[in-house]
């Protein structure tokens, strides 16, 4: 079992934080490690545990999700692109977790029960979906956060129950609010990264610009072609090429750049990437969510090459939109593209300023602050509401455009002001019939009645009440049509 648990305070009754990730690529685990480091800096957290849920599953399941994904990236990128688009609509899949996934999740569930967390942070959608089901079944009573690890929000991350959802940029928050998610449950923090060095190195303006080329992430043949083309750059520069654990690639590139003398430095796997990022002037590589976030936090602009279809292409679109990156769609022009950036007066400096502007070095701390200081009650999205959100997305509408019985209504805790449930307007009929008092107020209560509900009352009540006997709520329709429907009952 791959885990890292460390007491961070002698206080026995502090927070117990569980961080769940999935090792599909390195980004999700890197975000988990950054959050773990941020936990250790807080005196109110007694213990933190990090788990890679794939390491707890069967070898077959782990290989299909991990190795299988990257095999498709290499052999059929168009299929990866299609898969991203197919899984993008929010709540396309509703209902319980499939039996195979549930079977592979049993060791993780056992570990959750053993650890008894007071807070859970998910840096991958797989554990996020699992945790949502545990909340609604009453298995856990912990504050839960979903932390996205790319700049564009993908609908696959949206779950049926959570306390806080943290996204990388404001557009993601606007997107979720347009679908009906409440503003008090969605926060823009950026993507959690390890804290950068406090003092950035002072660059000598007389020295040539320093390139940092991430060759290991770009793939063998493609990476070699990229490095070969940088040798044709006419502007003065130096370059550090990082090949990761690919020893064969490192040897090939070392041989390739020998004629360039000391202009190139070739490294294998290194733990010094944060320092290299701080010392570089321009990054050349793929726009993974974590890599891009680390670069932006350091004010390091990017030349994007060979992005994975789907999330990395969308990451690149955002960085270019903000003026912090350029993209090269073919290795044959990479040298010319970099030369264009270096030769135009002031362009590199403008790109560096843009990167610095959108960087969020404190994202990990902001996630913990938002979760631990946030609502103690989860937000529950009923299956009927999930259906409405999916239909809204597919019809290119926003939630306030939808009227009638399928429009959305929020249940808001009258005491705290936080939204505790999202449901369809037609579900409100049973809700008001059962829980309205003589003054017309809606007060949710524990209900042991065996009478069937038209909506998922038992799951919602169990999640929202959290053991309390009563909870006064107010109804907030998202559209005028829904308002008339609610008032009519």
Automatic annotation (TrEMBL):
An example Gene Ontology biological process: glycolipid biosynthetic process
Keyword list, A-Z: Glycosyltransferase, Transferase
Domain Glycosyl transferase family: 240-356
Listed GO CC annotations: membrane
Listed GO MF terms: hexosyltransferase activity
InterPro entries the UniProt entry points to: Diacylglyc_glucosyltr_N, Glyco_trans_1, Glycosyltransf_28_UgtP
Keyword Glycosyltransferase in record: yes
UniProt domain Diacylglycerol glucosyltransferase N-terminal: residue ranges: 28-193
A Pfam family assignment: MGDG_synth
Family: Belongs to the glycosyltransferase 28 family.
Name of the protein: Glycosyltransferase
């Amino acid at each position: 079992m791959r885990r890292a648990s460390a007491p961070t305070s002698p206080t026995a009754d502090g927070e117990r934080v569980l961080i769940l990730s999935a090792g599909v690529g390195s980004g999700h685990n890197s975000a988990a490690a950054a959050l773990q480091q941020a936990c250790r800096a807080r005196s109110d957290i007694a213990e933190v545990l990090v788990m890679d849920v794939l390491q707890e599953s069967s070898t077959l399941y782990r290989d299909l999700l991990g190795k299988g994904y990257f095999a498709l990236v290499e052999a059929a990128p168009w299929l990866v692109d299609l898969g991203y688009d197919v899984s993008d609509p929010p709540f396309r899949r509703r209902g319980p977790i499939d039996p195979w996934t549930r079977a592979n999740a049993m060791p993780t569930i056992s570990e959750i029960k053993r650890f008894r967390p007071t807070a859970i942070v998910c840096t991958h959608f797989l554990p996020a979906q699992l945790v949502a089901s545990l909340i609604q079944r009453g298995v856990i009573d912990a504050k839960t956060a979903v932390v996205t690890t790319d700049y564009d929000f993908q609908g696959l991350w949206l779950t049926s129950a959570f306390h806080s959802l943290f996204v990388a940029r404001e557009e993601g928050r606007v997107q979720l609010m347009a679908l009906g998610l409440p503003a008090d449950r969605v926060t823009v923090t950026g993507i959690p990264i390890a804290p950068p060095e406090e003092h950035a190195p002072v660059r000598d303006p007389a020295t040539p610009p320093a390139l940092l080329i991430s060759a290991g992430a770009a793939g063998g043949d493609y990476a070699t072609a990229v490095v070969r083309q940088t040798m044709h750059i006419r502007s003065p520069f130096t370059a550090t090429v990082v090949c990761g654990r690919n020893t064969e690639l490192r040897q090939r590139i070392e041989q390739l750049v020998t004629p360039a003398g000391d202009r190139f430095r070739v490294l294998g796997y290194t733990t010094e990437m944060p320092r290299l990022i701080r010392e570089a002037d321009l990054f050349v590589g793929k726009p993974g969510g974590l890599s891009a976030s680390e670069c932006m936090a350091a004010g390091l602009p990017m030349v994007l090459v060979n992005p994975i279809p789907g999330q990395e292409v969308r990451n690149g679109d955002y960085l270019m939109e903000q003026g912090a990156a350029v993209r090269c769609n073919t290795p044959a022009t990479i040298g010319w593209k970099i030369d264009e950036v270096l030769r135009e007066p002031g362009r590199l400096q403008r790109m560096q300023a843009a990167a610095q502007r959108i960087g969020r070095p404190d994202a990990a701390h902001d996630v913990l602050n938002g979760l631990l200081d946030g609502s103690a009650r989860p937000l529950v999205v009923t299956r009927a509401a999930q259906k409405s959100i999916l239909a809204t997305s597919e019809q290119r509408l926003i939630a306030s455009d939808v009227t009638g019985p399928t429009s959305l209504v929020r249940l808001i805790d009258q005491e705290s002001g936080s939204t505790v449930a999202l449901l369809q307007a037609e579900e409100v009929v049973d809700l008001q019939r059962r829980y309205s008092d003589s003054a017309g107020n809606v007060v949710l209560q524990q209900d042991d009645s065996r009478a069937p509900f038209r909506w998922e009352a038992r799951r919602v009540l169990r999640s929202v009440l959290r053991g309390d006997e009563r909870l006064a709520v107010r109804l907030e329709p998202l559209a005028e049509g829904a308002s008339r429907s609610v008032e009519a009952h």
